[in-house]
Amino acid sequence: HRSDVVFGFAEVKHKQLLPATPSNEHGLGVRRSSVTDKSQSEDTAEDDDLTVDAIVAISEEALVLYVKALAILAKAIDLAGSWWGQRNHGEIIGESTSPRDTTKSSAPPIGNRMNNVVQWARNRFNECLEKSEFVGRKLVDAQKQLPLDNPGHPSNHPSASTSSTSVGTSAENINLTSGVTAEKLMYDRAVEMSRAAAVNELVGEDLAGCELNYNTATKLLEAVLESDDEPLSRRSNGTKKDRKPDDEVINGMETEDRQSVVKLIEGTKIRLAALKKKIAMQREHQASKRTSITNVVPSRTTTKASPVQTPLIATTPLK
C-alpha cells in the first residue's frame, strides 16, 4: 500500500512529461480544414510545451519518487522471501494452523495470497524501473539544454564520487541539483490532502473522497518513515538492540522531524476513524429512511385501488 501511493504520486509527475494525446472531438478523427487544424495545433503546442527548467524540476521529482517506490518494493519482496524461508522450515509466524488446514477454510490459503503479493510487487518493480530510466534520460537531456552557467548543466556537476545528491541508474549517475527529496514531496502532498479532506468533511461534501484522501495521506506519511537502508532484521525482530539510535538522521530527517510525522499520522488516523463512524451513521440513517418508505407504500396502493373497482361494477349491467 505504501509503495502504491508513492508510485501513484510519481505517475502524476511522469504524465506531465509525456506529450498530450490528440483528441478526436470532431468524431472518428475526421478533419475539418487545414486552417482549423493549424490553429489548434499551435494552441496545443503553446499550452503543452514546458520550459527546460520545468522539465528538469518535474523529472527530478518523478525520479526520486520512483526510486523511493523501488526501495519500498524491494523491502516487500525481501520480506516475502524471508516469510517463505520460515514457512519452508516450519517457522511460520502468526499461523496457528498448518498449511493443510488453511485449504479447508473459506478464505484462500495464505501461501497463494503471498504468492500474488510477490507477483504484483515484481511487476510493479519492473514498471517502476522502466519509468525511472525514462525519467532519468529525460532529465539528462533537459540538463544538457540548460545554459552553461546554470548549476544544473552537466559541466557544473560534481564528480560522482564526491556528489551526495546523485541517483544511480543502470546507465549512469544522475545528479540532482535542486536538492529535492522524495520524503519532502510526500510530506507536503500528505499535508495538502489532509487539509483538503478536513475542509470537505467540515462542510459535509464528498465524504467518500475525504476517506480516500485520509487513507492516502496516512500511507504517504508512513512511507516517509520507511528507511531505505534499514536491514530487514531490524523490522522483523523489533528489539531495542536492533533499533536505530534516537539521534540518528534517517532519510535526511532528524528525530524531531520524525516525531512530528508520527504525531501527524496519529492525528490523521483519528480523523479517519471519526469520519468512518460518520459515514456509517449516514448509511444507517438512509437505510432506515428507505425502510420507512417501503412500509408506507402498501397502504397507499390499497386506497387507490378502491375507486378503480367502482366503475367496473357500474358498467356490468350495460352488457
Automatic annotation (TrEMBL):
- Disordered as annotated region, ranges: 18-46, 93-112, 145-174, 227-252, 299-319
Q: Where is the ATG1-like MIT domain?
A: 176-279
The record ties this protein, via InterPro entries, to: ATG1-like_MIT2 (IPR048941), Atg1-like_tMIT (IPR022708)
- Serine/threonine-protein kinase Atg1-like tMIT domain: from which residue to which, for each copy? 1-145
Where does the source fall among the domains of life?
Answer: Eukaryota
GO MF, one term, reads: protein serine/threonine kinase activity
Q: Where is the composition biased (Low complexity)?
A: 155-170
Keywords per UniProt: ATP-binding, Kinase, Nucleotide-binding, Transferase
Please give the name of this protein.
Serine/threonine-protein kinase
Q: Which organism's genome codes for this protein?
A: Cryomyces antarcticus
